[in-house]
Each structure stands twice: as structure tokens, then as C-alpha cells.
């Protein structure tokens, strides 16, 4: 059974003032992630693409190669992170754990003050997949649950919040997010607790 296709915003505001730079967090699909004017209007300078089957060329200042067989490379207008998860079965659960720490790192990075890093610290962040309905929902729900447990004491509470703010309708909830991604987020949540406890132990021993 396929859920009806609904019209919803290209990007949706999910949470405010996260991380050391007080970034607002958005979820969107491919149309939102590739609309540089839209990203600029919302102060989004970081894009985290969850999808393996969605590539977006955000390069504007290209490094021209004398070899025409090489793809264009250079700096994007935003800081761009590509995760490559599958929207369904196929991704190891550890990819969700890695995705969590990449998202956390994207929010916390401090840019070197060198010409080869033409990015400012901070800025709002967009997490996207193809439709902004499943992969990105799973990851952001995990992130909100672990980063703001006082607001989202369970993963279910975080998903419910995202469903409302992303305008995901009840008759599509069976796949927003898909069950295997939901379960991957649950397992990643338990692993994060172990990782963070280990980090505290290491600090205490230093």
C-alpha cells in the first residue's frame, strides 16, 4: 500500500538553537536541498544529505581541470555532508550511528581560518533525503532525542514532533519513517549511551 502524495513545504523548521552556534534545524527533500536561494533566505549554510540515491552538485566556484574526463570540483555555497543511507533495508545499523555523529559534528565544527576553508562557523542546518519523509526523519528524531531529552524523552516523542512540523499525515506514518530505519535509530540510541559513557570514563582517567 502506497500513501498518497501530499504537498508540503520544500523545507520545514523542526527545532531551534541547537549546538554551540545556536543553529535552527530543518528537514527537507531534494527540491529544498538544491534551492540555494531558499537556503540563503533561511540562513542555512549546512546541508546533510542522508540519501545514497540523490546527488546534488552545489559547486559554484569550480576548479577547472585540463582533463575533461574529470568531474568538476571546488567549493560549494554551503558546507555539504553526504551520508548515503538506503530508504529501506540494506544499510548497516551502524550507519545511523555514524550519521548521528556526522550531524553532531556538522553543528559543532569550528572552521580553520585558511583560504582552503571558505566557510563561516555556525549557520542553520538542513537535513534532507529525497522526500524529507523517512531517512531524514529517523536521523533528526534520534538527534533530538539524544540532544534534548528534556523535550523529547523518547524517540517516539521526537518522531511525533517531526511528523507535526514536517506535515506528515497519519495515513503515511507507516513509512514516515520506514520501520527498519526507525529500529536502526532505536539501536543507535542505545549505542550512543555506551559511547558517551565511555567518553566520560576516559576523561575521568586522564
Automatic annotation (TrEMBL):
Protein name: Dual specificity protein phosphatase
Gene3D superfamilies found in the cross-reference section: Protein tyrosine phosphatase superfamily (3.90.190.10)
Gene Ontology molecular function: any one: protein tyrosine phosphatase activity
Record carries keyword Cell membrane: no
CDD domains (UniProt xref): DSP
Listed InterPro entries: Prot-tyrosine_phosphatase-like (IPR029021), Tyr_Pase_dom (IPR000387)
Segments forming domain Tyrosine specific protein phosphatases: 121-166
Source organism per UniProt: Ensifer adhaerens (Sinorhizobium morelense)
Keyword Lipid biosynthesis: no
UniProt EC number: 3.1.3.16, 3.1.3.48
UniProt keywords, alphabetically: Hydrolase, Plasmid
Enzyme class at the top of the EC tree: hydrolase
Amino acid at each position: 500500500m502506497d500513501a498518497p502524495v501530499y504537498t508540503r513545504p520544500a523545507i520545514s523548521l523542526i527545532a531551534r538553537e541547537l549546538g554551540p552556534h545556536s543553529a535552527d534545524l530543518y528537514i527537507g527533500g531534494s527540491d529544498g536541498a538544491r534551492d540555494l536561494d531558499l537556503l540563503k533566505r533561511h540562513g542555512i549554510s549546512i546541508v546533510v544529505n542522508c540519501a545514497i540515491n540523490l546527488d546534488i552538485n552545489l559547486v559554484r566556484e569550480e576548479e577547472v581541470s585540463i582533463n575533461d574526463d574529470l568531474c568538476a570540483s571546488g567549493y560549494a555555497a554551503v558546507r555539504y555532508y553526504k551520508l548515503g543511507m538506503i530508504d529501506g533495508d540494506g544499510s548497516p545499523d551502524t550507519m545511523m550511528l555514524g550519521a548521528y555523529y556526522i550531524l553532531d559534528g556538522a553543528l559543532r565544527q569550528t572552521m580553520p581560518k585558511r583560504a582552503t576553508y571558505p566557510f563561516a562557523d555556525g549557520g542553520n542546518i538542513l537535513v534532507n533525503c529525497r522526500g524529507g519523509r523517512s531517512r531524514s526523519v529517523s536521523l533528526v528524531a534520534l538527534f533530538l532525542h539524544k540532544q534534548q531529552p528534556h523535550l523529547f524523552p523518547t524517540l517516539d516523542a521526537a518522531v511525533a514532533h517531526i511528523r507535526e512540523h514536517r506535515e506528515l499525515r497519519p495515513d503515511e506514518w507507516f513509512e514516515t519513517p520506514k520501520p527498519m530505519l526507525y529500529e536502526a535509530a532505536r539501536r543507535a540510541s542505545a549505542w550512543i549511551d555506551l559511547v558517551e559513557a565511555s567518553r566520560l570514563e576516559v576523561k575521568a582517567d586522564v
